[in-house]
């Protein structure tokens, strides 16, 4: 009986040691993710700090989103056609954006070009019709943005990477921007963002599955 108890004790000790090692591995991945995210944010901030005000854009430190906020600059009402000023902004922004991301490719799973709308839709008060019309609109806009930046001449050497990592995602009005009173801000809700998705979650999953 004493021998059996010793066996169980050794098994318990071995298991606790294994759990501790796995926790340490996950912690290392989390720390590496935080460091990489901070470094990438700092690199983006250094690269674009002087341009953000002119572009009416901002960089979110937590989500690594570069957010273009001025609907009057981006597209016409109900249109998927990029306005000339937005094209000029993208001509300047996108090659420099890729240059920054070059240094962090090992940490990047995906880059999403995300389109967001307000809940409004001209000609209807039905929220379901508005939602699905805005879904088609936001999807069309992000595809138009992706196609435009893909065809920029001086990013030709990055086109294969863009095809493998970039996605165009339209969210309709699912993620509105709210004002201080908690109500939707329609103008700020209409936006286009470039969002980096890191591979930290994937790395943690691999550790758990091993």
From TrEMBL:
One Pfam family from the record: OmpA
Domain of life: Bacteria
Signal sequence interval, chain numbering: none
Keywords recorded for this protein, A-Z: Membrane
Residue ranges constituting the OmpA-like domain according to the UniProt record: 62-200
InterPro entries noted in UniProt: Bact_OuterMem_StrucFunc, OmpA-like, OmpA-like_sf, ZorB-like_t2
Cellular compartments per GO CC: membrane
Record has Nucleus as a keyword: no
Protein name as catalogued: OmpA-like domain-containing protein
Lineage: Bacteria, Pseudomonadati, Pseudomonadota, Gammaproteobacteria, Enterobacterales
